[in-house]
Specification:
Layout: H1 2-24, H2 32-38, H3 41-55, H4 69-84, H5 87-102
Helix pairs in contact: 4-5
Length: about 110
């Protein structure tokens, strides 16, 4: 029962927020400094999700070795992105390096 109430509560909060934004529309304007700050939210959230998965993929501690395929693929993806600035190439190459490293082709 507690899980059901929690899920219903989260759904109500989510719908209320989205409905409020939809109903108010352009009538509410955010200050420029807030809009600039909100632009960094997606990058911050993705970084907070991805970095722990790269550094501690099993959750038991840091695995900063060349045998960690997540770390190797992440470093490769960072390098490819820095050189090319091409998102699809970065994702594809990162996945290729990960799977090649995971299944022993490169490592």
């Amino acid at each position: 029962m507690n899980y059901t109430l929690m899920i219903v509560g989260m759904a109500v909060v989510t719908v209320a927020i989205k409905a409020g934004i939809f109903i108010l529309g352009d009538r509410v304007t955010f200050p420029e400094w807030l809009r600039e700050a909100l632009a960094f939210v997606p990058v911050t959230v993705l970084t907070a999700i991805i970095v722990p998965m790269m550094l501690a993929p099993h959750g038991s501690g840091l695995e900063l070795t060349w045998r960690n395929p997540q770390l190797v693929a992440g470093i490769a993806a960072i390098g490819i992105c820095a050189l090319t600035r091409h998102q699809l190439l970065t994702i594809g190459a990162g996945l290729a390096v990960f799977f090649a490293w995971q299944f022993g082709v490169l490592g």
